[in-house]
Amino acid sequence: MHPPLTIHRHPMCVEIIEEFQKCHLDHPIGKFFGDCTELKVKLDRCFRAEKAVKRKANFEQSKKMRERLQALRKETTEAEA
């Protein structure tokens, strides 16, 4: 199962999504018997890569926020003392 195939939400996978959707249109019955499986595998790999990029960006952002929070805590403890 894959997420909804909206192109604006998956900028890294635009070409593969279009190929996959075209395959489904070209093979309305064959899609149930594996005609589009190769593209599905490529699409899943692209989604995994896209998710890894997002995960890394979120981790970097959380690291910056954590550093800001620790600096703020240090300032408040020094101001209290």
Automatic annotation (TrEMBL):
Its main location: mitochondrion. It is found in: Mitochondrion. Pfam families: Cmc1 (PF08583). GO terms for cellular component: mitochondrion. It comes from Acer saccharum (Sugar maple). It comes from the Eukaryota. Belongs to the CMC family. This is COX assembly mitochondrial protein.
